Amino acid sequence: MRDKVLLLEFNELTPRLMEQFIDRGLLPNFRRLRDESHVFITDANEKQEHLEPWIQWVTVHTGLSFAEHGVYLLNEGQKLQYPSLWDLASRAGRSVWVCGSMNAKYDDGINGWVLPDPWTESGAYPEELNRFYNFVRSQVQEHSNEHKGLSASAAADFLTFLATHGLSTSTIAAIAAQLVNERLSDSRWKRAVLLDRMQWDLFKWRFRRAKPDFSTFFLNSTAHFQHVYWRNFEPEQFELKPSEQDRKRTGDSIPFGYQQMDRIVGEALDLAGDDTIVILATALSQQPYLRMESAGGKILNRPIDVHGFPKLMGLKGNHRVVPVMAEQFHIYFDQEEDAIAAQAFLREVKVGDRKVFGNPERHGNEVFVGCMLFEELPPETRFTTPSGADMRFYDVFYVVKDSLKSGMHHPDGLLWIRGLDRAHTRGGQKVPLTAVAPTVLRLMGLDVPAFMKTAPAQVPGVQHPVAAQ
Fold first, then answer.
1. Helix pair 53-62, 436-443: axis angle to 10 deg
2. Which of 40, 70, 407, 463 could form a disulfide with 415 if both were Cys (CB 3.0 to 4.6 A apart)?
3. What SS3 class is residue 313?
4. How confident is the model at residue 73 (pLDDT cuts 50, 70, 90)?
5. Exposure pattern of 319-332 as b/e (b: 16+ CB <10 Å)?
6. Is the whole model's pTM more than 0.85, yes or no?
7. 405-458, pLDDT tens digit by residue?
8. What are the DSSP calls for 49-62, one per residue?
9. Cβ(384)–Cβ(350) under 8 Å?
């Protein structure tokens, strides 16, 4: 059997909310996909501190637990020592199209196209894809920073690339409508779904031309909405209630995100046709974040100029900065001794007796750091450094808008497998997240490598495979 597979990677969609919105009639395409699929709930089987999408998506792609693959941080995919699904497919002579997958490492000369997530440094393949990747990367890494402007020339080059790689009239209309609405209302938060639309246009363009044997398409916008707006969506869950203004502005953001993805699901089912298995996986889900309600909630502070931050702090040595999500970023030094010194220095940056950065992590010449003060400080607050510098906190940092944390990770995830026969079943027990990769390989008729220890999910009509030796 040589079935093709399209893996829709919709990060952290929540089973309870999915069923709620389907029952309300908001998601006709998700309903269709569910009702034509073998439906499972996955379990990440990890401690809460290891429930992170940049860990769990590596598990989805390799069939390995965190303890086995060892990829702990966003932008650490390059440290992976095992092949991912796309590598295994490519090595077997199958064509691949990897679009946006998180923490993606891939073989040199892979048989297809790879567009990694915007936090990965390796870049895209082939080279022409970097015109899309580099622009998206710069925008996503600074999406919360209103101090950073948009380069007109970079935007023009990006749109020129898209114009010849699938940009649709509906997406152009959506961009124009968004810009108009931003002048009339506080709706900037909806920009996240524009990136979804543009990336989907690119995915469709390539998919139709290449007809890949294995493809992935990753989206994160709705996960972001859940993290920051769940309080406004279900205020009854929280001790800290949102303002009426916030409820009106973003109270429908979560169903809005699901509905935007529902449109893509409908197009994906049409795109797949009769010869491609469609799989929906979410790796994780979310739940209300209630841990800091009594302390006023958790908000984020981030450097205004993250790339200039090491120099401003007086850190020594040649370096480069790579932002990741929220308040965190990597500093890579040319010399390990400079990283050691930077780690020690940043440990002693303080507001009064409180450490601004806690205990930054260091791995060789890399320091991973983020502000650990999770509240909005008084405007006059100052911080000091070990070198004697004394600066006003909000001359260096800013409060990330809409960063009051509302959603947190949950180990359950969705796994819907729409076979070519469109048969519907529901799995009675949760399946380990490590089962996803061997299941995909089995559906494609590929051998399951020996390093994948978990048996595939029991999909009716598909024989149970034995790991390749």
1. 40
2. 40
3. helix
4. confident
5. bebbbbbbbbbbbe
6. yes
7. 999 999 999 999 999 999 999 988 999 999 999 999 999 999 999 999 999 999
8. GG--HHHHHHHHHH
9. yes
